[in-house]
Amino acid sequence: MKPQIKIPAAFQVYQEFQELILTRDHPCVMTQSSFKSNQVDLFAHDTIGVDKSSKTLLEDLKHYIELYDFTASDYRSFLAVFPKEEIDSEGMHPKSLRIARRSLYPTIFFNFHLQFERLKERAVYREVRDKIHARDKELQ
Q1: For residue 54, what are the domain limits?
Q2: Would 1 be classed as within a structural domain?
Q3: Across residues 74-79, what is the average pLDDT?
Q4: How distant, in Å, are the alpha carbons of 5, 60, 64, 80, 96 from that of 46?
Q5: Model pTM?
């Protein structure tokens, strides 16, 4: 019989991510900006890859899209966190080879492509990208 694992409340998970991103000086300055300005929507899910969790994730994403202000210049992120799972993902997870992609729980970040296009319009995209890559390389 599998042991029961208590899932931390979403607020606790948010605080843990906030510490990871801000206190530990995460290399992605855009993610730091999102957390500093409270522009992060974090949803904790029990599991991944089953119909119920997929439907819940879809509903959470729809809610994020409905509330997103497409006229604002803020950089806003959606995080789907799976505290019970032990999976490797393209997002962040505890065993990632890249230090910058390590997190306490498997996590998928979602950002609108529009946010990156706005950085390009302001002619800062390359500067931000290069800064993130340099900080990532330095951390590694």
Answers
A1: 10-139
A2: no
A3: 86
A4: 10, 14, 19, 10, 21
A5: 0.78
